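Fill in residues.
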């Protein structure tokens, strides 16, 4: 059974600048409306996405090992990593603050790493598995990306919160810089991935369709 043609089969694509449907059969391919360069797929999408994702993973190591804040509670102060800060707040009964830090600094980046790696591996292999669900997963990663800066400012917000309640005194440390870079590179990784690759036909399937048309 023949499947309906996709836009790329008809030499059509959407302009990334204005959203106009354009014909890319003619070279050079430029949008008739805004003059932007046209590409059927993002250039080197998988390579750039992998590069940004691996850079984020490397930076995530010092982001977790180096102290991100100095917490003074009940007259005693100590540097804290992300996880030790979560445990410290939990042990002192500030479970709400501990939960905020855990979700923003541990859970959210972890979800983005796993989701992007899954999208990359399946797209590279031309997998037909759960295409619709993978598209939804990408939109989820994209949605999380809009709130990624929450990971960076969470220390500042928590510092203001605990000072307001006179629970402790908090100062940022060098680990927060690496954590900020992790956020930036994960955002760039998500932006570099082209979700249309999920729906591209494997090479053998393209050959079968071409043979059926002839």
């Amino acid at each position: 059974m023949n499947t309906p043609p996709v836009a790329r089969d008809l030499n059509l694509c959407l302009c990334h600048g204005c959203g106009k449907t354009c014909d890319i059969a003619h070279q050079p391919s430029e949008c008739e409306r805004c003059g932007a360069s046209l590409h059927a797929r993002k250039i080197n999408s998988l390579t750039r996405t992998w590069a940004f994702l691996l850079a984020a993973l490397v930076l995530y190591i010092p982001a977790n090992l180096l102290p991100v804040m100095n917490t003074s509670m009940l007259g005693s102060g100590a540097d804290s990593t992300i996880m030790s800060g979560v445990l410290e707040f939990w042990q002192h009964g500030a479970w709400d603050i501990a939960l905020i830090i855990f979700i923003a600094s541990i859970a959210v980046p972890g979800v983005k790493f796993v989701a992007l790696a899954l999208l990359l591996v399946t797209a590279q292999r031309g997998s037909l598995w759960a295409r619709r669900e993978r598209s939804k997963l990408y939109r989820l990663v994209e949605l999380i990306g809009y709130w990624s800066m929450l990971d960076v400012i969470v220390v500042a917000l928590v510092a203001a919160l605990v000072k307001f309640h006179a629970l402790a005194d908090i100062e940022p440390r060098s680990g927060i810089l690496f954590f900020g870079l992790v956020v930036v590179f994960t955002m760039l990784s998500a932006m570099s991935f082209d979700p249309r690759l999920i729906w591209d036909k494997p090479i053998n399937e393209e050959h079968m369709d071409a043979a059926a048309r002839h």
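Confidence is low (pLDDT under 50) at residues 204-214.
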